[in-house]
Amino acid sequence: MSKMKAIILAGGKGTRMKSELPKVLHKVYDKCIIDYVCDACMEAGIKDQYVIVGHKSELVIDHLKDRNVTCCLQKEQLGTGHAVMQAEQYINDDDLILIVNGDMPLISPYTIKSFISFLELGNYDGALVSAVFDKTPAYGRIIRDSYGNLAKIVEQKDCNEEELAIEEVNIGLYCFKGKHLKESFKKLDNNNAQKEYYITDIPYHIINVGGRVGVYMIQDPDETQGINSRSDLSIVTRTLLTNTREKAMDNGVTLIDPSSTYISLNAKIGKDTIIYPGTNIQGKTTIGENCVIGPNCHIISSTIGNNCIVETSKVDLSSISDNCKIGPFAHLRPNTKVDANCKVGAFVETKNSNIGEGTKVPHLTYVGDSDIGKNVEVACGVITANMNIKWEKNRTTIKDGAFIGCNSTLLAPVTIEENAIVAAGSVINENVPSDSLAISRPKQTTKVGYLKK
Ligand code: UD1
Ligand code: CA
């Protein structure tokens, strides 16, 4: 079996974006263009990935640093053919090389897999994907011979009138046998309108020496839309969001107003969950069944269990178990873990904390770097003061069944043991043993009749 590798082209300037940022680092909703392409290849089973970087390569390399990909530097951007050649040292004769434009984020793993099967079943030496759009974009045209086989691709800028009228275009996804690909490198030149080395000349060179190149025509052109301009970016974003909304609804989720509900490609939402308007669900978020989310929630790479209510709140890199009620106006900052049957209410901010089963933090409280046990009651206006004057963070521990009275400050590091009570208005800087009452506030003085004197 030949080894499958992917070369992802991401070295271009992206001039038409009019941006300081390299094109592939622009986001489609919540994720960079290049990440969609790498993830799609990965999901199609191609782990061996080579990304061609060039324009502002430092930024792209830095962005990709947590991925297991090899970056190949294209020092000068001399065209897409020249870009592929930068990975030549990684191409073996019996490899199968998938090449994909890095500016085509909606390409699906399913299409990539079907395309590879098409090449294998047809026993082709190379293949490419074509599409017909409602309005023909400024893409390379697919020129076929009198038998209907591929003859060559002609870039729009190099087309004569007859070629311009062709509606079938090259979408920028190719696959070649390593040997044929490397042979064709020697024949690439830049005798064309843009004075560039075109990848689109490679099929012609393979055909010219008797090789066979297949054309896989895709039915749904939407996923092959490339991004060259801000306008393309908005079109692709709209397509993505339409798809994710449809998928959620197909899976039994109610969207009160789909057009004001934004769902990432990587989100999973359980059936009978209802989402109210103004809600953004981003990253790898999982929401269970039978939840009510929104209006106006922002949920980022978080997990929410079944039967939860999350109203007008932000949940960032956190997890919430079943039967919880969050908000309105709660802010769960990264690494908050809320167990089942909890309430985290209005104007409560949490961070890097564990909140145990059945615990209630209903209003106006800050919980930072804390471990709160089960069935704890945190009354209104409690602060876990996690930072000391040396800017060091310390933890607060509140054990099962404790009660923290209103407007108390817990100076970390400090532990409140099981079933202890902290009286309202206390500043606690010593541990409180179990079943004890801690009270730390000035004694009240009442001057009777003072105002009548
Ligand atoms: C390319 C195709 C065209 C196709 C269209 C589909 C060529 C010559 N033309 O045109 O047939 O219809 O895509 O969208 O390939 N890149 C580099 N180095 C370079 C130049 C480009 O890495 O020197 C990368 C870009 O970052 C981009 C990709 O290659 O991700 C495609 O380049 P782009 O300039 O967008 O090609 P198009 O003109 O769109
Ligand atoms: Ca392009």
Secondary-structure map:
Elements lengths: L3 E7 L16 E2 L2 E2 H11 L5 E5 L3 H7 L5 E5 L6 H6 L10 E6 L7 H13 L4 E7 L8 E4 L5 E5 L6 H4 L3 E10 H8 L16 H7 L4 E5 L12 H21 L3 E2 L5 E3 L4 E2 L4 E2 L3 E4 L3 E2 L4 E2 L4 E3 L2 E2 L4 E2 L3 E3 L2 E2 L4 E2 L4 E2 L3 E3 L4 E4 L2 E3 L1 E3 L4 E4 L2 E3 L1 E3 L4 E2 L4 E3 L10 E3 L4 E2 L4 E3 L2 E3 L4 E2 L4 E2 L8 E2 L15
Parallel strand pairs: 1-4, 1-6, 4-5, 7-11, 12-15, 13-16, 14-17, 15-18, 16-19, 17-20, 18-21, 19-22, 20-23, 21-24, 22-25, 23-26, 24-27, 25-28, 26-29, 27-30, 28-31, 29-32, 32-35, 33-36, 34-37, 35-38, 36-39, 37-40, 39-41
Antiparallel strand pairs: 2-3, 6-10, 7-10, 8-9
Helix pairs in contact: 6-7
Bound molecules: uridine-diphosphate-N-acetylglucosamine and calcium ion (CA).
The site of calcium ion (CA) has 4 residues, from loops.
List keywords for this structure.
7-stranded mixed beta sheet, Spore Coat Polysaccharide Biosynthesis Protein SpsA, Chain A, binds calcium ion, UDP N-Acetylglucosamine Acyltransferase, domain 1, 9-stranded parallel beta sheet, 17% helix, 2 domains, 453 residues, binds uridine-diphosphate-N-acetylglucosamine, alpha/beta, 8 helices, 41 strands
The CATH topology of the largest domain comes to Spore Coat Polysaccharide Biosynthesis Protein SpsA, Chain A
What's the number of helices? 8
Structural class estimated from helices and strands: alpha/beta
The CATH architecture designation of the largest domain is Alpha-Beta Complex
What small molecules are bound in this structure? uridine-diphosphate-N-acetylglucosamine, calcium ion
